[in-house]
DNA sequence: GCGAATTTTTGCGTGCCACGCATTTTCTGT
DNA sequence: ACAGAAAATGCGTGGCACGCAAAAATTCGC
């Protein structure tokens, strides 16, 4: 309905999420209390839980948003475009930093990878990230079902495509974060997507 | 090294996990306290946390074990067998109820599905299940890398296959649990595996 | 503009959970 | 049987999620 109120809410949510990430990167996950995150945003600790139902959720929120955008973009893109091209294009676009990162210290890909390693080392955070991915996967499957005219409740295809896309994204990210190959996400991600789309026969 | 001690530990761990599942199915997740689980097994609450580092972990443990068996079976199977046949065979075998279920009330597939729905409705449990799947995926990727002589640190293939296998399993399970099609897992799972192996072109 | 209604924030209190540490009990190897 | 190792337990602490009701802020009808 209204604009200002909801935008303010989203701003607070984003600020909390962002503060949680920053503080965790600085001090480590267990050293940051909910109270600290709330204080960094200038809000009461009780209010934090009005926005996020767990400490971990604030950190996974950015991941969730980006993943959800993928599904949204798939819905609003040109309907005629072949499915996998649309998916690849939408996935690649999520790699571009959004406007919210403007007033952050500029992060190279190395710092980003290091930060992610820290996050995923914490079991609670890993679990919450995975849950976020799963939520986005549901949206993605629904979008694909719409696009292909298939039945989400009975057809394997939409869910399989959605799950495979998330799998490819995660694998590409893992390899990037682990840094075995020096290749950037812009290279790894499309390659992984092409592979799952084409099939994975024994080489 | 020793036998009795470790077997007793595993027995306790399994008993705790089993008690957690049973109590949760009966009363619901939030109504069962760690104290209850411990009491059901005849062990101190403090001891529970020597086995599982969270309340949810006990429930995901059965899922974790089964998923890990898949990787183990892939390692110990005939090395000559084509990769995807070996995977499918190993995956199907995990559907057979293990010997630990012998003295449980016989569960039809419907009760099983209902139980799973309850579990996955709880965010904390869903997250923990996903984490268990992720851990197993790592093992699976390593097994596949070994089998194909590929490099886990630089090649996408092993991780992609592992992730796709887990994705297919999860999708098959979702569809089964949701029950849109009346088909059993023994049918859905191989079909999903065949699809991800062959590729997912727009139909 | 202004006051009423709705929404959001906050303070407070409760119950539970994860875990460190020291102690006791149980098991193993010789 | 005994010494040493490993596991179970008791106790205490800090923190987190959340229900509830009061207070503050914002929207909307007029």
UniProtKB/TrEMBL annotation, chains A, B:
InterPro entries: Homeodomain-like_sf, HTH-type_TetR-like_transc_reg, HTH_TetR, MftR_C. Keywords: DNA-binding, Transcription, Transcription regulation. This is TetR family transcriptional regulator. It comes from the Bacteria. One of its GO terms (molecular function) is DNA-binding transcription factor activity. The keyword Transcription regulation applies. Transmembrane segments: none annotated. Signal peptide: none annotated. Residues 10-70 form the HTH tetR-type domain.
